[in-house]
Amino acid sequence: MTGRELAVRLREARSAAGLTQAQAARAIGRPQQTLGGWENARSQPDVGALTALMRLYRVNAAAFLGLEAETFTLAEVRMLQRYRALDAHGRRMADLTLEEETRRLREEAARAAGRMQPARAGRASEAASEGQIAFRVSDQPAAAGAGVYLGPECFHTVYVNAQALPHGAAFGVPVRGDSMEPVYHDGDILVVSGEQPRYGEIGVFTLDGNGYVKKLGRGVLLSLNPAYAPIPMDESIRCNGKVVGVLSPQDVDKA
């Protein structure tokens, strides 16, 4: 299914469910402009969001994706079984990888069609020779303050000094706000591991669709800046990983 076909089906399913864009976006905890982008083929929903929309619209997944007549290979069936056996963190990591690979293929197809400038020749080899490794950084910041959406569909790749990455580093998230000062500052790129933080440790959390950098407390998310009140946690809380370091600007090559 092409991106445009998916966009049309999303619009039709929402309309059939009798929901406005605002209502649907609020129901799945995403910004309305993000949902609008999906429905206009400017971007595509991640696996989690697409699943949430199909449940909200009460549509059959196979029929919605046009898979009813598909024949799945044994390898594909096993992959699905493995995915379903993962915990929430494992599924997020798998979704991130799928999104990154999907984006890479789209960019390669666009370059082949002459719509994009060729990437720097041998960038990965060049980076390796310079002691750098590829590292994914979220396009969307996690708030050390009021909270913004942190989703898996918007990541870009930077090249980082391998010596600067702590053990277990999984991805990076920019900081917005001052609630974690004096330790973390607005604009810092936090290094996040897949490990779950313990009480008293700093993590990146998603609560009601908003991303936060906070210290894990007993039933609350805590700021280091005393000017900010604790944020009560509820059943929608998800931990995206533990903060294990901060990248210095000189360690990052965005080219």
The first-level CATH class of the largest domain is given as Mainly Beta
Number of domain modules:
2
Largest sheet: 8 strands, mixed
CATH T-level topology of the largest domain: Umud Fragment, subunit A
What count of helical segments does DSSP give?
Answer: 8
Helix proportion of residues, in percent?
25-40%
Beta-strand portion reads: 15-25%
| Cα Rg | 20 Å
Beta-strand segment tally: 11
Spatial ordering of strands, largest sheet: 2-4-5-10-6-7-8-9
Which terms would index this structure?
255 residues; alpha+beta; 434 Repressor (Amino-terminal Domain); Umud Fragment, subunit A; 2 domains; three-stranded antiparallel β-sheet
List the helices and strands and how they pair.
Elements: H1 3-16, H2 21-28, H3 32-39, H4 47-57, H5 61-64, H6 74-85, H7 88-112, H8 123-129, E1 132-138, E2 142-143, E3 155-161, E4 169-176, E5 189-193, E6 202-207, E7 210-216, E8 220-222, E9 231-232, E10 238-247, E11 252-253
Parallel strand pairs: 2-4
Antiparallel strand pairs: 1-3, 3-11, 4-5, 5-10, 6-7, 6-10, 7-8, 8-9
Helix pairs in contact: 2-3
